[in-house]
Recover the amino acids of this structure.
């Protein structure tokens, strides 16, 4: 059964005449008649009573007519949906990002994308880099921002930016402004993220390299909780610089070599990106350059 056959059949039903239907569709009348006969053979039933001056539908034709209209309408809707998707008037992007980026980089990127492509649906998954790699590999995301080093087999990685980690506190930590040293964390209780945060792992690794393990004032929070605990004066915390810039807390950079993390844009290496996801990738790259 072909859409063309159904279109010819509906035209005959509406106009009640093979010749008028052929003229309306700008096709030869014998061709139209042949297509309807082919449809009747395929369905195993006569669909049209052929009279000299007028054609009417058989019972089988009456049963087919509403279904044929629905099929043709769905086909037209499919064409429109594909056309709008290709022009980015419609579509969907599934983006994953760690919590620290969801409170810093991601809102600006989504705003820029939404301004350009208001008809595209945006879905965001907030999770740690390891979990995002797993979900992305399973095909449940189109793109993900992940912090390396993270084992990411089967994924294509593009370095997006490098971000310094800074020490935030409710009040200035030193009598005179200066940069912090890793050794300054030796006797200073920290507000520490839960396990699984890349910032936690980076902080602990830097402290171990300096020969000590830090003391925790509070341990186990998510990003918002950690910032609130710092604001309440429970201790200082090491956080990404882009996050610190939005908090109103006192941010103290570290001396060289600075604590730093690399943020990569990842997607499936063997899976072509949709037009909407490709456009999101371009917006992310533009943001990183700016």
């Amino acid at each position: 059964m072909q859409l063309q056959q159904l279109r010819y059949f509906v035209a005959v039903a509406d106009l009640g005449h093979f010749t008028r239907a052929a003229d309306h569709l700008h096709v030869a009348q014998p061709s139209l008649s042949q297509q309807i006969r082919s449809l009747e053979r395929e369905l195993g039933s006569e669909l049209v009573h052929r009279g000299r001056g007028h054609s009417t539908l058989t019972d089988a034709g009456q049963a087919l007519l509403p279904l044929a209209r629905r099929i043709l309408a769905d086909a037209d809707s499919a064409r429109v949906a594909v056309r709008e998707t290709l022009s980015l008037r419609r579509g969907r992007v599934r983006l994953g990002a760690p919590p620290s980026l969801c409170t810093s980089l991601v809102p600006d990127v989504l705003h820029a994308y939404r301004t350009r492509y208001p008809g595209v649906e945006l879905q965001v998954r907030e999770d740690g880099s390891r979990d995002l790699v797993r979900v992305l590999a399973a095909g449940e995301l189109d793109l993900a921002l992940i912090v390396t080093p993270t084992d990411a087999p089967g994924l294509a990685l593009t370095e997006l930016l490098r971000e310094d980690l800074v020490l935030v506190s409710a009040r200035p930590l030193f009598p005179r402004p200066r940069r912090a040293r890793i050794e300054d964390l030796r006797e200073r209780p920290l507000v520490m993220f839960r396990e699984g945060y890349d910032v936690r792992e980076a902080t602990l690794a830097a402290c171990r390299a300096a020969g000590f393990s830090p003391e925790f004032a509070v341990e186990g929070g998510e990003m918002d909780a950690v910032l609130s605990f710092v604001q309440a004066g429970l201790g200082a915390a090491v956080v990404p610089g882009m996050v610190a810039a939005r908090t109103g807390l006192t941010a103290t950079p570290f001396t060289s070599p600075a604590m730093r993390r690399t943020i990569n844009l990842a997607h499936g290496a063997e899976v072509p990106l949709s037009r909407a996801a490709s456009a999101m990738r371009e917006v992310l790259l533009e943001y990183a350059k700016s």
